[in-house]
Design a protein that fits this description.
The chain has helices spanning 26-31, 38-43, 85-89, 147-155, 160-182, 220-237, 255-258, 271-278, and strands at 92-93, 101-110, 126-135, 137-146, 204-205, 249-254, 282-287, 299-304, 318-319, 321-322, 324-334, 337-346, 350-351, 357-361. It is of the alpha/beta class. The strands form five sheets. A five-stranded mixed sheet has the order 5-14-8-6-7. A hairpin with a 2-residue loop joins strand 11 (324-334) and strand 12 (337-346). It is elongated and about 160 Å long.
Length: 363
């Protein structure tokens, strides 16, 4: 039996199919031998059959990831260590950026009263003076912004000039804080810090506890004993000029040790609670510079903030004389950008009343 030919298309007449109405696909099986069920037909898009060929372009996802991103607001900035020298001893803006030295005068009254006699010589009073010198050191930090850099950073929502100015200020503050604690050795200069002022007394080791000397292994009673020992030493050393009930004191503790002040007694009272009630004039501060400050051992200082001793200065135990905290040196306009330079000047720290400070180590 001769087979029935449903359709015949000459090669020269063959062309891509135009779009069909879905209902017309039923004739494909009969005319072209293409059989599609109703479910397939209902889910299909209408394409010309000759579009179904291997890719000519590079294979990729249908939607670029850039269109699927949600950008969170702002930028997270990298943190630096806390700069606590101002909290420790304050800040005194004195002198000028160009000064070479900061000088503190010291006057000592001299003379002795003697028993009276009609024929004896009159005992005369006198005075003696000395001077403490601190050398001023200056730092600088500059920035340069180019035109293309500024335009491109703006596309990232970053103010390049503003970020660089902030970086200049931050770096200068980091150096001032470092000199405030450690001083600056430039050969024959005299720039000292909170930790190495030559007027300070020697470190005193704390008494050992049952498990050792470090506060991390000491009990409530052992830590409070260390603090009481420091308070007694300060009162005795000052010949009772420092009364902890009347004078404001600062307990400066290494960052690694300060949280052991939360150690509690058997009755649930912490060392901080005890300190607040027993010595309310004592404030607690901490800084990482006191970590391992004495031969690898953590330390703490106890000192009077200021003393009313008839002196004509500000009465402070420590000062941080800073001639210039932040100074603009100049701005230079360039063909393709601009250059800015900033500076500061500091003379470190000065202990003016070493008898108002005690230092303990091995905590």
């Amino acid at each position: 039996m001769k087979s029935k030919i449903h359709s015949s298309i000459p090669a020269r007449s063959f062309a891509a199919f135009d779009s069909f109405d879905v209902a017309d696909y039923a004739e494909l099986g009969e005319k072209l031998g293409i059989h599609l069920d109703n479910r397939t037909i209902s889910n299909m898009m209408t394409y010309a059959m000759d579009d179904l060929q291997p890719l000519v372009t590079t294979a990729s996802v249908s939607t670029p990831v850039q269109f699927l991103q949600e950008w969170l607001p702002g930028f997270v900035k990298v943190i630096t260590a806390a700069r606590n020298i101002d909290e420790f001893i304050g800040l005194d803006i004195v002198g000028n950026w160009e000064d070479e030295q900061v000088v503190q005068g010291i006057v000592e009254l001299a003379g002795n009263a003697l028993p009276y006699g009609d024929s004896t010589n009159v005992p005369l009073a006198s005075w003696n003076t000395n001077y403490n010198y601190r050398t001023v050191v200056r730092f600088e930090q500059g920035m340069m912004v180019d035109r293309l850099e500024e335009a491109r950073s703006a596309k990232q929502r970053i103010d390049s000039a503003g970020e660089k100015r902030e970086s200049c200020a931050l770096q200068l503050e980091i150096e001032r804080n470092r000199v405030g604690f450690f001083g600056y050795n430039n050969g024959a200069n005299q720039t000292y810090g909170f930790l190495n002022d030559p007027n300070l007394g020697a470190y005193i080791p704390v008494l050992p506890g049952v498990a050792g000397t470090e506060w991390s292994v000491k009990t409530f009673l052992e830590i409070t004993r260390d603090i009481r020992t420091a308070i007694v030493a300060l009162r005795t050393q000052s010949q009772d000029n420092i009364n902890p009930e009347k004078v404001n004191l600062t307990l400066a503790v290494a960052t690694n040790s300060v949280d052991w002040l939360s150690t509690t007694s058997d009755f649930g009272i912490s060392v901080r609670d005890w300190l607040t009630k027993a010595y309310p004039n004592v404030r607690v501060v901490s800084a990482p510079e006191l970590n391992q400050a004495n031969g690898g051992q953590n330390v703490f200082y106890l000192y009077a903030d200021a003393i009313a001793d008839r002196s004509t200065d500000n009465g402070k135990t420590f000062i941080q004389p800073v001639p210039a905290k932040y100074k603009t040196l100049g701005v230079q306009q360039l063909a393709k950008g601009y250059l800015e330079d900033y500076s500061n000047a500091t003379s470190g720290s000065m202990c003016k009343r070493p008898w108002a400070v005690v230092r303990f180590t091995d905590i």
